[in-house]
Fold this protein.
Amino acid sequence: MVFQPLLEHMVASLRPEILVLQGWSANDGPSPEAAQAYATRILHLAAQARAQGTVPILVTRFARKTLAQNPREIIFADHMRQQQLSMRAPDMPVLDATPILEDPAHPGLYRPGLSNDGIHPNGAGHAALAAVLTPMLESLLRKAS
């Protein structure tokens, strides 16, 4: 919750053309209610960004080892991911990070070699995301010019 007011101020002050937003976080706690509250705040920020002409890119959840250990949480996380994917629109693209990073044989866990701690992507994980994000950014910037 600490970073969000700062991010809102930065977006209003800098007025970027594109804003990449993490659509899922467990930083406020692992409960579905905390995740839903975070997602609601992020969507509010996305709406504010769109109102000033910024294109927000919503990023679906990353893998996280605690998801693999909590079947209830992964069901909720997947439900939220589907909601985010359904929000895909020209004025709010969605980068579906989940299948890029997550091991399909082990839901909630990173693909081998894409994380060092099971929570955050490492250099290879970021490169895998960048391979999908870069063409998305290039397309948005071409449309803007």
In short: Residues 123-144 form the longest helix (22 residues). The chain has a mean pLDDT of 89. The chain has one domain: 3-132. The first strand starts at residue 18 and ends at 22.
